[in-house]
């Protein structure tokens, strides 16, 4: 097992959240310097902590600002995914795909406010809010623009931004959901603000170096069944109206 893969669970649980900021900063700054054995011990600790919080997570009904989660496309059963692999055509930016792998740490995304704004950690996300999704491992934001996707010629979806998680307005997505707030069992859509396209999966699969992963695109019509997403595994922050703010985790 590689050192980078051992690191992933620890950095994910640290996320961007309450009391664990110092851990995630250490992960980001000293990833290559950490001793393998120490990393393995930390990862074991994180796995135990995940199981401890499983029951408590049942009470966290909403997706909140600062939550770290995986999104699965309802039609194709693939999780929204990214990695340090760039498109060979189009924008040449970091690629975004769908993966069947449930345990892949490259499928975690941090929920945060729209470009240029901040949201209070633990605040439930309202349906209709404009949000960004930051890829936890690479710190780039889910992004789209008027560029053709590589396999179907639909709109390209990429991951974009600097090493501080900042990009531009092409990172903004409107949350569309059926209730007042984003509930964890909701089926949602994400509408790209700049281009008015919907986050979707085309069903086409890539070859080397990301063989078997599916193309993620901007879809023109909200009526397409490929535009539906649901929350899967994640690390959820309890809403601020509770007396104690703490992390909640679940494996759905």
Structural notes for this entry:
It is a single chain. With about 250 residues, this protein is of the alpha+beta class. It folds into two domains: about 1-50; about 65-235, Trefoil (Acidic Fibroblast Growth Factor, subunit A), CATH 2.80.10.50. The chain has helices at about 5-15, 20-30, 35-50; strands spanning about 70-75, 80-85, 95-100, 110-115, 130-135, 140-150, 155-160, 175, 185-190, 200-205, 215-220, 230-235, 245-250. The protein has a six-stranded antiparallel barrel. The longest helix has 17 residues, at about 35-50. The radius of gyration is 17 Å and the shape is globular. The model is unreliable at about 1-30, about 30-35, about 45-60 and about 240-245 (pLDDT under 50).
Q: Briefly, what is this?
A:
The chain crosses the membrane at residues 36-55. The protein has helices spanning 3-14, 21-30, 36-52; strands at 68-73, 79-86, 94-99, 109-113, 130-135, 141-148, 155-160, 173-176, 187-192, 198-205, 214-219, 229-237, 247-250.
Main CATH class of the largest domain: Mainly Beta
Structural class: alpha+beta
CATH architecture label name of the largest domain? Trefoil
Backbone CA Rg: 17 Å
- What series of H and E elements makes up the topology? HHHEEEEEEEEEEEEE
Total beta strand runs: 13
Helix content: 10-25%
- The fraction of residues assigned to DSSP E strands is 25-35%
Task: Give the end-to-end Cα distance, rounded to a whole number of Å.
Answer: 26 Å
CATH topology of the largest domain: Trefoil (Acidic Fibroblast Growth Factor, subunit A)
pLDDT averaged residue by residue? 81
């Amino acid at each position: 097992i590689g050192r980078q893969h051992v690191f992933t669970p620890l950095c994910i649980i640290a996320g961007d959240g309450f009391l664990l900021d110092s851990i995630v900063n250490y992960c980001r700054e000293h990833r290559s310097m950490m001793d393998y054995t120490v990393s393995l011990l930390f990862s074991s600790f994180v796995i135990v902590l995940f199981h401890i919080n499983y029951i408590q997570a049942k009470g966290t009904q909403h997706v909140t600002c600062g939550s770290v989660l995986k999104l699965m496309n309802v039609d194709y059963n693939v999780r929204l995914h990214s990695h340090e692999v760039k498109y060979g055509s189009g924008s040449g930016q970091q690629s975004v795909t769908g993966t069947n792998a449930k345990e892949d740490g490259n499928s975690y995304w941090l929920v945060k406010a729209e470009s240029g704004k901040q949201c209070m950690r633990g605040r439930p996300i309202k349906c209709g809010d404009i949000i960004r999704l930051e890829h936890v491992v690479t710190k780039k934001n889910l992004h789209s623009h008027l560029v053709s996707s590589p396999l179907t010629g639909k709109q390209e979806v990429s991951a974009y931004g600097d090493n501080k998680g900042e990009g531009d307005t092409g990172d903004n997505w409107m949350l569309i959901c059926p209730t007042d707030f984003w509930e964890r069992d909701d089926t949602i859509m994400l509408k790209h603000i700049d281009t008015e396209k919907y986050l979707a999966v085309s069903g086409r699969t890539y070859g080397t170096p990301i063989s078997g992963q599916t193309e993620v695109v901007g879809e023109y019509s909200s009526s397409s069944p490929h535009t539906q997403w649901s929350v899967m595994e994640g690390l959820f922050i309890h809403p601020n109206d509770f007396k104690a703010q703490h992390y909640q985790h679940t494996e759905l």
